[in-house]
């Protein structure tokens, strides 16, 4: 029985992840993501209403047209976690496959939202949930296991396939964080056990591999400590206060809420995506917001909340979207004077997010920060830790799993290559047992 | 009789240059420029219709309100050359002064255009022209001399004031280029002569001083050689061909025309500012366009020309605006599919301009280049030399003039400081005879 | 009574700090440091045996020859903390002044060591100690106060002069760290009190002001958390383990010891400067080393300890000098195979120090790391936080002290200028109440 | 008959190039270079006296031990040009093969020098010369052709193998320079002809591919123009004058001589490698030095020449080795005061070479420049153009040759990958017809 790993998306870019694994006649698909950067290149891209083929041509979603030549039956579409570069294309692509969509409960709820928002296609695939630590039989030969992982969104897992030819581990995206409050640490014990049983192939993210600063990615404990030190002052000043972070980073949102709840300020979570990610997290009992807090998602509700805050700015903490300065998001609109809340001299703005590297983000953030400063705000911009494994984390990971073959993913060629060089330091060899694939290429392992 | 140099604009930024020199009771103003970057920070800035005070508040034009406290009479407003960061505020500020506007003929024509376009103010100051090498008495005590300089626009000069207390040299902006075709080399002989006579103060640009790569700024001969090598191939391919450069860089435009005229291609100069700068240059006999060339400025004329070129792309060379990727300029609009000319596989695009350092330009250029490439264009992006003096040119300049005092200008504090450190290597001392001013500060020299 | 601040060293470089403050006829000197980088430029520089004037000419120590023209009497030489760029020139310069040397007990002990090592001059100035929080009358008019600060060495203080004309604060070097274990937090209460009383002038470091990454410098709690996460794995592997950090960073050394003491490994602190700084710290009760630890300083003792460790590498943790890769320090010598301890495959090396920015350090570190890796070591290089205040810490500091005048120090012109721009954001103005001085320039405040 | 390309050295680094091509039973080897950087990692590396296996272990020379498993007979060892990273290992490796060494006359003379200097091995392989444009039968099936190329050393060629399975082109190292004086332009006509005949495989350098600044590498005409502008001033000042450049860059040396010969200065070419490369070039009629010039290579002769120059510095132009600041080379030794020629205030130093990117070079250059400046020299450091093809040159090259397969070489993985991505823009696909090899891997093409 041969095993084949088919690179569909995310092997030439950071984004639009999708990989298929064929074991004998059974095919399992991992992730169906979008490539957010590509949207801005064509100004008229309206994702919700566009057809898959147009989006494929523009490089926005994975090009899965090659799947029609794959001789096999798709038994499951498995999602590692709920970020858009992993689930964002589900409504465009899933309906072509007669197979269930499988994710942890939080991921599954986000997939459901994605499908509900779709305007072009009807997606009727059943959605199944599997808890971290759980197993599910996908076919006669294949059993799926979700091994607990950590990332920058709750309920991220390593999906693992147990096959007659060995174990296949899909490790997009993860970090090794032993200090999150919302999520337990990664299940190192199980990873080592899998390593002893025999891992045939590891498909693994390479997003952070070139970052020479963060050899082992800092834990969320670091982010908590930084935010505690940064927020203490502003919380007790009699001025306005805004924190912006990733809506989906529920761990971080929890941290911000925990620090602020001891103060007298009422916490307002504002913005559509803030409502989406935090609302679901709260309803599932993952996020525990304090009493003095509310979430507002609709433009109307947001405006009303901002009006309230404008007049009593020292009484509120605004937690908003817009950390990249994207012109339509909330914080940039506040900075541009387009909301009822006007920045005044002395207001404090904490940006708990990096600039996602891309010239447009750099320009948007620059303009937003200049506007905020011009209105008199004080900006604290360095309150973040990454959600992706660093170089030395990856080394540890390889040592735990001892895979026969490694396929780096979720990166451009320079990232996949850098991962390959790390693997060579651990005794592997590019071209022999480390395989660098381009989108639409496949690697066959003969069992 | 005391001499006072008053920093009005351009001492905390690259842009909106304006300096006043007071000699006894007479005041001479140098330049009235705008700060282009600042316009984009406030989205609703409509320069032509806005009042000076609003533009001052937004940092777009120099804040000359301090001039009302200067006890003296303005005898002349002198323009060094025709770039917008030196003349762009003339229509907003000049009418407040009862004094003539003085420039070389090319500069004067551009000032006239600027005034004609103004919608808010009436500007009735007389415009006087002075040729490079010429002199003009501005008051009993002060004579203005224009010493030939070189820059990236024709007829740039060093305006020099001969005063009873010594000579004052205003050196914004210049390079030492001995190989331009449109402009003669700088008048080194006269500069050295001034040095021997005794220069009291040198007010000097510092724009390029931090560039450690270009110790002596390369001459336009280098740009010619590079463009010759780059253009040769594309000129004779049967595909579309576009060159974009600064409209005001008439020397460069001449070079492009000279190289292309030997080919069979008809040259189309396209875009409003291309028409403005090149049209005047041609009418004044500065720019000599070949027979097989035309300039189109109005949107309608440009569109018609593009339609013609679309069908016979191998027969035309388009010379366009838009090298920074500014969304409303021509090349970015072509890249975005918004004109009758569609980029096709194999078309060649030569960008004869650097990215002017600024996150918005970086983002715009990035998006434009990605779109051009996505349509199949081949881009050549490294065909430029700077128009500003390099570190070692400045050293030579100091040695020629041997000024008693130096006031670096046209830069942020880090540039003015870097100039100061260079001057210290030449025996000066910051705080003693090198004076780093902030906007609105003045330096007095007691004669 | 006029007050004069005289810049002697550290106003054109990071290093060789020295400032004099003249109040009426009394002069107080702050710090007498060396400039370590300058030593390597002249290969034959032997500090211990060279004369002050030679060292001044080479830029290694501050040029205090201008002090002979200062009309006043030196009443005290005050040291802010024990780093070499603040005390390293004491043995070369102090003997010229008839005044006591004043520091906290830890600083005083280091000064004593410095004087003991001198081969050229006899230094007989009395050494006086003053505890953080203490006061000492220096003359009729001047009282010195040591306000508790934090930095990367124990017992760093803000020396404060109470004068008839107002308070003068000397703030080199500091960070705001509320989470050190060896040192209490800065005395914010007292700083604000001084601000209310009226600070005439603040002399303040600018070393980190250009670092746009660290807006508020991370606390040592962050370093502890990082080191805990990094060291946990290596401590329990059966391989060699080395940590290198600044010998004088007693807080960090304490952290390393605290983490390691729970393991079975014996801790060996190795290297001459490790013995100097940690030995004194231990004898003064500042550093509390666990039982299973020893310090070895002499080459012989170090070698013996390394021999022991070579054979039972899994039983020891080596804490060494050499984090910059300086060829004669211990870790680079180990890396180069010149000690009895040979790096073996699997050994772990943790570098708890940044590359101090300088091309020589970059080259040395690069070579050291390549050698360590070539021998099979695994390197963890990102376990550090800075000891210098960040941009936003400085903003807080200015708001606490509200000084009438600010004089940035301990930086090159670009750093002093960047500090000046920060102060301008807080309402100050360079040239008016922010004074950028060059070495040997003075600023007079008329009381 | 199958064709196999075997990567021996230079596929994981810039340096120690060596590639074997097996056609049926015949093997042709291209280049035997050293890796200069690796020497400094082990301080005790004495190349001339060390055994191949030690040098292989240290990564200094290619690991050709795999050749014993290659089932075939070596018919020729072909050298593309005379740089050390292409010929430097000849004396260590060639004796193991019973095959002639083949190069152009200039390359052959340099190989002979290399062999003469060897202390460990006897190398008796016959040396054969082949002129650019010439052909030589290497076996029944294989004919070698040397196609004229340009690089930064004279007589660089593209060695081409004509085989029954198609043409194989070896393109290390080259640029497309139409304006050299010492060398004719590349033979574009022949390259296109080869493309039409059918190129099976292109083995091609990737050294400059990541340089986004130089899309088409500037020609030596640019370097001439720059040097003319830079040297004019210093030549006629009454001060010392030094130019340093690559000894092997005979074209550049010729340029320097041509510019200087019109002045009154006598030109002294100084340094051992200057004598080696220029001496041979002169004896072969490639370099034409003016009458008022001499070459001195031995330390004694150099010292004597320097003594002469010391006393009449305005009468000489010194052209020296040492542009990287390597401590033992001439210019760094002058800078460090270790020669009879002492830098005086006003002396001019022109560095016509880039910093070869590597932390040690950066540190050495930094120290050398600081020393030169400290002694009063004025440095001009930006007088160079690269000798390696840029990104757009490579695109042109691919379009000329239209090879079936491409194997990028002479780079680390990131460079080979970047080349691969360029090839993909031209319709190739990594993994299909672009092959990224690691040292010791092979690619087979079945004819």
TrEMBL record, chains A, B, C, D:
<dbReference type="InterPro" id="IPR036866">
    <property type="entry name" value="RibonucZ/Hydroxyglut_hydro"/>
</dbReference>
<feature type="binding site">
    <location>
        <position position="173"/>
    </location>
    <ligand>
        <name>Zn(2+) 1</name>
    </ligand>
</feature>
<dbReference type="InterPro" id="IPR030879">
    <property type="entry name" value="RNase_J_arc"/>
</dbReference>
<dbReference type="Pfam" id="PF07521">
    <property type="entry name" value="RMMBL"/>
</dbReference>
<protein>
    <recommendedName>
        <fullName>Ribonuclease J</fullName>
        <ecNumber>3.1.-.-</ecNumber>
    </recommendedName>
</protein>
<comment type="subunit">
    <text>Homodimer.</text>
</comment>
<feature type="binding site">
    <location>
        <position position="410"/>
    </location>
    <ligand>
        <name>Zn(2+) 2</name>
    </ligand>
</feature>
<dbReference type="GO" id="GO:0006401">
    <property type="term" value="P:RNA catabolic process"/>
</dbReference>
<keyword id="KW-0694">RNA-binding</keyword>
<dbReference type="InterPro" id="IPR011108">
    <property type="entry name" value="RMMBL"/>
</dbReference>
<dbReference type="GO" id="GO:0008270">
    <property type="term" value="F:zinc ion binding"/>
</dbReference>
<feature type="binding site">
    <location>
        <position position="86"/>
    </location>
    <ligand>
        <name>Zn(2+) 2</name>
    </ligand>
</feature>
<dbReference type="InterPro" id="IPR042173">
    <property type="entry name" value="RNase_J_2"/>
</dbReference>
<dbReference type="InterPro" id="IPR004613">
    <property type="entry name" value="RNase_J"/>
</dbReference>
<feature type="binding site">
    <location>
        <position position="151"/>
    </location>
    <ligand>
        <name>Zn(2+) 1</name>
    </ligand>
</feature>
<keyword id="KW-0378">Hydrolase</keyword>
<keyword id="KW-0963">Cytoplasm</keyword>
<dbReference type="GO" id="GO:0003723">
    <property type="term" value="F:RNA binding"/>
</dbReference>
<feature type="domain" description="Metallo-beta-lactamase">
    <location>
        <begin position="15"/>
        <end position="226"/>
    </location>
</feature>
<feature type="binding site">
    <location>
        <position position="83"/>
    </location>
    <ligand>
        <name>Zn(2+) 1</name>
    </ligand>
</feature>
<feature type="binding site">
    <location>
        <begin position="384"/>
        <end position="388"/>
    </location>
    <ligand>
        <name>substrate</name>
    </ligand>
</feature>
<dbReference type="GO" id="GO:0005737">
    <property type="term" value="C:cytoplasm"/>
</dbReference>
<keyword id="KW-0862">Zinc</keyword>
<keyword id="KW-0269">Exonuclease</keyword>
<dbReference type="InterPro" id="IPR001279">
    <property type="entry name" value="Metallo-B-lactamas"/>
</dbReference>
<comment type="similarity">
    <text>Belongs to the metallo-beta-lactamase superfamily. RNA-metabolizing metallo-beta-lactamase-like family. Archaeal RNase J subfamily.</text>
</comment>
<dbReference type="GO" id="GO:0004534">
    <property type="term" value="F:5'-3' RNA exonuclease activity"/>
</dbReference>
<feature type="binding site">
    <location>
        <position position="81"/>
    </location>
    <ligand>
        <name>Zn(2+) 1</name>
    </ligand>
</feature>
<comment type="function">
    <text>An RNase that has 5'-3' exonuclease activity. May be involved in RNA degradation.</text>
</comment>
<dbReference type="Pfam" id="PF22505">
    <property type="entry name" value="RNase_J_b_CASP"/>
</dbReference>
<dbReference type="InterPro" id="IPR055132">
    <property type="entry name" value="RNase_J_b_CASP"/>
</dbReference>
<feature type="binding site">
    <location>
        <position position="173"/>
    </location>
    <ligand>
        <name>Zn(2+) 2</name>
    </ligand>
</feature>
<feature type="binding site">
    <location>
        <position position="85"/>
    </location>
    <ligand>
        <name>Zn(2+) 2</name>
    </ligand>
</feature>
<dbReference type="Pfam" id="PF00753">
    <property type="entry name" value="Lactamase_B"/>
</dbReference>
<keyword id="KW-0479">Metal-binding</keyword>
<keyword id="KW-0540">Nuclease</keyword>
